[in-house]
Every structure is written in structure tokens, then in C-alpha cells.
């Protein structure tokens, strides 16, 4: 599995509010056998997640999603709380945790972010003299990345509040100044209606916040029908459908091509009956192309039932590319520098600039 199979999801007409464009994702038929619901953890606060006996992940976690493949429908209504007096720091123990019956609680987007933050986190696997003994012994120092809450992305709250939810809508693509910021899809239209507002508690990258803050308003989707060719309601309906097809083709092949056409590295997190929960990373190619990390639930044919993505900044792509290059060449600085077409001294500067100075024998 190397790509996102969005079979069954089609782009609907876009809706625009200032610099925000929301493109609904529609399903002709809901995904059978899987439902998603939300689990709220009290007032938004930091939460600790225990990954294993020695490693903890700390982040802002306002809610979790519960996947139910029992066939009995949603397992928890929107707004459900864990109980009164929830502490400000909530121990959640694992990113994905089995619940009684055929249910799994997982933390939306944090599966994806953990995968990015843990990228080659163990540091060198061989003891090159260039690398620090501390990095070999303890791995890289704690990784930190910044993101913006959806509620802090200008105009997004208003766009979500006023835009129409389409019949059959099971997802949305969020654009700021026509830069794709996030994709969100669920298996059933009722799930989307319940989870629509959770986009305000999702995480968005720095670039999307800047584009929404400073970008110009984008043009609205408008259908243009040649009235000379319309002689009946059937002609008008056919012309409208032709416009929808033209919009969908332009959207999928141009605006969303970065999401659909990228080859990803998938890592399975959990098997859920006939479904699999994955997280994925992009190839970290340089050159300015937009790249996304994310998580997905797929059926046995690999078709996406659930999807959530996060657009990386150029700096985040650069750090991922550097770590991938080092690991691909067994952390040998000479071979890595040759592969990158640069000198070892320049590679050392890049390592320091990226925040990985602990890898060096003389970090300072």
C-alpha cells in the first residue's frame, strides 16, 4: 500500500468564505460496518500519552475518536465526557486503545504527528566517529513541532458555521488561499454531521495559518450554462451535471493532486475486523511541493473509510528529508553529503540548523 485510494469519495461544489475554501467529499453509499464518534476529555488541556515504559508524548488533546466495527452503530454520542472532575492532564496511555467489544479509541491527528516526530528518533544505528556518544546512547533529543488550533485559523470558524452540509457528505478538504491544508473523511454522513465542528479543534500547519491570515479572498465556484443549448429541464440538469464533472476533474487533477498522486510510506497501527488503521508519511522530497502526513482507516480492498491529514511546512519537510538521507546512508556523513551534492561542512551546518546538533561530536 503506497497511495490513498479514495474510491467512493467525490468532490462536490466548493464553498468560499474569504480566503477559506471548503470542498465537500460526498459518498453515494456509506461504508458498511464502520462508524466513528467523538469522545470528549473535558476542557481542552494538555494530556500525557504513555507510548511505552520509558517514553511519553505530551500534546494538546481535546478529544478522541471511537471507531466501532460491531455493526451496532455509533458507540458514543457527540459531547460525551469521561466523567465529572476530569483533571487538567489526562493520562491516555496509548495513541490507540482497544475498548470493550469491537471498538477502538484513537487520538485524531496524533497518530500521524507521533509518526513524524518519531522519524529515525533513535539516531545512528552504527557508531561513526563523527556522531556523538550521547546520540548513540539516548537517541535524538526531544522533538517539538508547533501547530495552530483550527479555531485560531482566521475565517475557518465562520466558514464551518455558515456553509451547507451536503446530502451524502462524508468529508471535507480545507483550503486557505487555495493551498490544501487538511483532508478529513469519515465512513457515514451521520458521522460527519456529528464531527463537522471538530475541525476547529484539529491542528493546522503554520503555512495554512499564514495563508488564511494574509491571503486574498479566493474566487467562488460558479456554474456557467449556455442557455442557447437549454430547451428543457432535462437539458438544464445535464448542463449542471457537466459543470459538476468539469469542476471535479479540475479539482482532483490540479488543486488536490498533491494529496492524490503522492506515494506514501504506510505503517499499520491496528487491525479492526475488516478494517486497518494506518498512519503514513510522505517521501520528503525537496523542491517546494506540498506534502502531508496523516492517518487513515481502510477496508480490506485498501479503500479509505476514514482520513485525516496535516500539511507540513517546508522546514518540516526539510528536517524529514535530512533524517531520511542520513538513515539511508547508515548515518555516514561523507556518503550522505555526497548523495546530497554538498560538502560535509555544509551537511554539519544543516544538521545544526535543523535542531539535530546533538548528533554531532561537538554539538556547539
Could you please describe the fold and organization of this structure?
- There is one protein chain.
- The protein has 364 residues and is an alpha+beta fold.
- The chain starts with 8 loop residues before the first strand and ends in an 11-residue tail after the last helix.
- Strand 15 (265-272) and strand 16 (275-281) form a beta hairpin.
- It is globular.
- Strands 1, 2, 3, 12, 13, 15, 16, 17 and 18 form a nine-stranded antiparallel sheet that branches. A four-stranded antiparallel sheet has the order 4-7-10-9.
- Helices cover 27% and strands 26% of the residues.
- Helix 9 packs across helix 10.
- Residues 75-93 have low confidence and may be disordered.
Topology, element by element:
Blueprint (H helix, E strand, L loop, with lengths): L8 E3 L3 E3 L2 E8 L7 E6 L5 E5 L5 E5 L2 E6 L21 E2 L4 E4 L3 E4 L3 H8 L15 H6 L9 E2 L6 H7 L6 E8 L2 E7 L3 H7 L7 E2 L1 H9 L18 H23 L1 H4 L4 E8 L2 E7 L10 E8 L4 E8 L2 H15 L4 H8 L3 H10 L11
Parallel strand pairs: 5-8
Antiparallel strand pairs: 1-3, 2-3, 3-12, 4-7, 5-6, 7-10, 9-10, 11-14, 12-13, 13-18, 15-16, 16-17, 17-18
Helix pairs in contact: 9-10
Amino acid at each position: 500500500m503506497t497511495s490513498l485510494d479514495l474510491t467512493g469519495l467525490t468532490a462536490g461544489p466548493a464553498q468560499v468564505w474569504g480566503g477559506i475554501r471548503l470542498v465537500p467529499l460526498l459518498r453515494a453509499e456509506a461504508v458498511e460496518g464502520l462508524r466513528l464518534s467523538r469522545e470528549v476529555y473535558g476542557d481542552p488541556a494538555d494530556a500525557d500519552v504513555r507510548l511505552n515504559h520509558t517514553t511519553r508524548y505530551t500534546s494538546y488533546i481535546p478529544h478522541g475518536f471511537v471507531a466501532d466495527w460491531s455493526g451496532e452503530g455509533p458507540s458514543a454520542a457527540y459531547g460525551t465526557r469521561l466523567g465529572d472532575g476530569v483533571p487538567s492532564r489526562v493520562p491516555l496511555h496509548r495513541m490507540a486503545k482497544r475498548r470493550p467489544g469491537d471498538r477502538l479509541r484513537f487520538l485524531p491527528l496524533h497518530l500521524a504527528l507521533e509518526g513524524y516526530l518519531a522519524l529515525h528518533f533513535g539516531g545512528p544505528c552504527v557508531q561513526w566517529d563523527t556522531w556523538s556518544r550521547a546520540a548513540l546512547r539516548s537517541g535524538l533529543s526531544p522533538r517539538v513541532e508547533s501547530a495552530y488550533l483550527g479555531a485560531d485559523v482566521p475565517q475557518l470558524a465562520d466558514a464551518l458555521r455558515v456553509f451547507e452540509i451536503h446530502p451524502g457528505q462524508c468529508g471535507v478538504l480545507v483550503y486557505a488561499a487555495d493551498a490544501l491544508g487538511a483532508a478529513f473523511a469519515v465512513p457515514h454522513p451521520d458521522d460527519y454531521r456529528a464531527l463537522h465542528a471538530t475541525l476547529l479543534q484539529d491542528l493546522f500547519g503554520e503555512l495554512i495559518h499564514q495563508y488564511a491570515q494574509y491571503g486574498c479572498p479566493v474566487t467562488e465556484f460558479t456554474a456557467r450554462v449556455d442557455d442557447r443549448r437549454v430547451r428543457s429541464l432535462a437539458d438544464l440538469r445535464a448542463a449542471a451535471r457537466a459543470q459538476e464533472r468539469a469542476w471535479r476533474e479540475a479539482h482532483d487533477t490540479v488543486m488536490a493532486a498533491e494529496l492524490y498522486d503522492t506515494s506514501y510510506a504506510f505503517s499499520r497501527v491496528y487491525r479492526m475486523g475488516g478494517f486497518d488503521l494506518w498512519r503514513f508519511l510522505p517521501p520528503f522530497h525537496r523542491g517546494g511541493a506540498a506534502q502531508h502526513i496523516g492517518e487513515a482507516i481502510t477496508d480490506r480492498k485498501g479503500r479509505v473509510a476514514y482520513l485525516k491529514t496535516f500539511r507540513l511546512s517546508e522546514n518540516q519537510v526539510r528536517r524529514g528529508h535530512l533524517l531520511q538521507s542520513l538513515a539511508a546512508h547508515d548515518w555516514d556523513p561523507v556518503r550522505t553529503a555526497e548523495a546530497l551534492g554538498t560538502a560535509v561542512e555544509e551537511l554539519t551546518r544543516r544538521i545544526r540548523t535543523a535542531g539535530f546538533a546533538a548528533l554531532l561530536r561537538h554539538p556547539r
